[in-house]
Design a protein that fits this description.
Layout lengths: L2 H18 L23 H14 L4 E7 L5 E5 L4 H4 L17 E7 L5 E7 L8 E9 L2 E12 L3 E12 L2 E13 L5 E9 L1
Antiparallel strand pairs: 1-2, 1-9, 3-4, 4-5, 5-6, 6-7, 7-8, 8-9
């Protein structure tokens, strides 16, 4: 299998993995970096919608590195990206939903460099919520780094993933996803992908 063929196989596997979680669709809109537009928590959906529109307008590409099952890391450059699809897995970190009101404890801390980190920790008793924790680090009101830990656990499926986004000057510059999933009667699958916006 050539490097390019195996990369697209790996990329296809990651799309399947994204579909195993509780995904959402990109329908609500917000200004770049907007938070708290709708609901009590950080507006992840609004941020992703704005980034997808901005990157699509600028025709930005991406360089990706993908590894499955601890195998060799494959790198590919994609000059044209459908950004709403590309960022779909990150919509799973949206905690700003009516069903999740009161599900998260909110904490804020000022960091030594002047940044502010807002942390959203899942409260006990909300076991059906997929996002265990969301951390948003901002400078002057603009998100700089976002990290989310998600988990899904039932009789047929276990999955956990760590998602990260890095923004510079209000625009997405890097993102990554790594995790593990186990389907009943199937082997455990570990995956890792990292991308840099070109």
């Amino acid at each position: 299998m050539s490097c390019k063929t195996s990369f697209f196989f790996a990329a296809g596997c990651l799309l399947v993995l994204a579909g195993c979680g509780q995904g959402t669709t990109a329908t609500e809109e917000a200004a770049p970096g907007a938070a708290h537009l709708k609901g009590p928590y950080f507006d992840m959906r609004g941020l992703l919608d704005a980034q997808a529109r901005q990157l699509a307008t600028q025709h930005r590409g991406v360089q990706k590195q993908v590894s499955l099952r601890g195998g060799a890391t494959e790198t590919v450059q994609v000059p044209e990206v459908k950004w709403a699809d590309e960022l779909q897995i990150f919509y799973q970190a949206d905690i700003n939903k009516a069903a999740l009101r009161g599900a998260y404890a909110v904490d804020s801390a000022r960091l030594p460099g002047g940044e502010v980190r807002h942390s959203y920790q899942l409260r006990p008793g909300h076991d059906n919520a997929p996002v265990l924790r969301l951390d948003v680090t901002s400078q002057a009101g603009q998100p700089q780094a976002i990290r989310a830990t998600l988990r899904q656990d039932n009789a047929l499926f276990f999955g956990q993933k760590d998602l990260r986004l890095t923004l510079q000057n209000g625009q997405l510059s890097q993102y990554s996803a790594q995790g593990v999933q186990k389907l009943l009667l199937f082997d455990t699958l570990r995956y890792q992908t990292a991308a840099r916006v070109l």
